Amino acid sequence: MASSHDAETEGITRRKSLAALAGVGALGLAGCTQSSGDGSDGGDDGLSGSINIAGSSTVFPLMSAIAEDFAAEHDQLSIDISSTGSGGGFSNYFCVGDTDFNNASREIQPAEEELCEENGVEYIELIAATDALTVVVNPEADWIDSLTIEELATIWEEDAVETWDEVRDEFPNEEIERFGAADTSGTYDYFIEAILEDRGHTSDYQATEQDNSIAQGVSGSEYAIGYFGFAYYFQNPDQLKALGIDDGDGPVEPSLETASSGEYTPLSRPLFTYPSIESLGKEHVAEFARYFVEQTTNEDLVAGDVGYVPATEETQEEQMELLEDAIERAQE
Question: Is residue 17 scored above 60 in pLDDT?
Fold first, then answer.
């Protein structure tokens, strides 16, 4: 049995690994053969083939961690994961039939549903975890600890303010440097829905699908601000400062606890993955989907390694029932 120090070290290593992968934005995993201790090779249970996954950069570290563990047990399997953004994944890959799963940080939208229908792509929606969408600044910015919803909107709306003292009088007269999600991102869509509504989103910012690029940009400028999934703050706590968000009842800082309790409003949100029903007709894809749902309640992995709120046992049971019905339908 591993010592507590070994377990802690393993968690740190996994966290650093996920942070590095986030910067790359793509992951290819091939099953690796493990020794079973009796001289034979473990992990080969007859599952073979490839699984292609695209979509949300927010879900990317969670999917990567789960896929890594699954591939380690199945030496004839390969899993490719790309961080394309929720919308980019739906429009360019999943809804045209080129991937088996699409990760998403918001629900599939009507135009994407229509595209899937046009191409005969059927799917189910599975809840992966709960995220606390996090607004970050440079750790040297000791003049700011929180923002109200209205202040946050003035920074990111279409006709955004240009300097920090336009947000709040006591803030410095310095130009705001913005880093955020590209418009193919579900995080971009959710931020508009939760904060900006009909005020639009500024185009005066560094847009990217790689959330680690946002982290790097903010950490490099004292007057920068950015937003992304909580996992990317969780993986860079010393390089970034998370802001409390005041929705009218005082500032609440993003955390696993405040996201789980519902205190962190309006930026707590569910995360999803969408498997293709046709793909679930393949045994290796079906088994991976089952494994994914099983792992959504794994606190050590979902919360400890990645930085999201795990699903409840009740949610997991509901998701597994939905999945098994889809697998049965696909394999009839």
Answer: no
